[in-house]
Design goal:
about 280 residues, 3-stranded antiparallel sheet, 3 strands
Length: about 280
Amino acid sequence: MPLLIPLVAAAALIAGRVRPGQDEPDVHDRQVDGLLAAGCLVSAATLLLLMPSPDRTTWLLPGALAYLAGAAILLVGTRTAARMRWALLLPLVAITGVIPAAVVDATNGALRAVVAVLGRPGGPVDAGGALTTTYRQSALTLTSADLPGIAFLGGTACLLVSALVVFGPRTVALRRAALAVAVLGAVTVGAVMAVLLTGRLLGPTAFRVAEYPVLTDVLLALVVMILVARWSRRAPQPAPRTVRPYLPRARFALVTLVVAAVLMGLESLPAALALTEAAR
């Protein structure tokens, strides 16, 4: 899964949402931020360093998410991290195993069918699961492995998460995300057609350069970044209202410490069971 798309989506979210809202109290409690961040970072270190080697990959994802949560709280504060909490789902997009192979294959098949239909007549042909065009009697082929289906799926996931971050769990988020996914799909199809057209007009050398996956990834990343940045700029702001001069956050610290204790307890459970069996 290309890492570029989640990276630019996260950057656009941070740039657009890091500013405090008009209805938020002016609280700067760095001690509580440090306490919360310490709980998350200790949990991450425990999961990544102290887990038994055979089970280390099992705990890699929750450990990485705990580290990201702690780093976000430490850098931008608890309130901003709370506003950005759904953005922590973006690292999941960067892991290929999250997207089943059957879904990727179906997406690439849909891309092949659409490009073949739009390319008629005389354009690319969907032949045997691959897109084929010609240059002076030479066949130029894009196989399913060369199609950007997984990048499109990753960009779609980034847009869904970003819409949830910007607009909240509301109908407007679903509408904006659906429109953005349609735009991303159109750009993806256009990129595939552009690669095939480059080969048809300029020959095999230009075709080999144009089919480099990074070029399509950069294009899709730019589209995602522009859409998320526009959402952040146009997101409705709540009307100013009287707020409390303080925000008690002890409950957040309590929840974080309880989660850290549970995670560390899970880590030590196998050793405790082994000692119990040995004592018996």
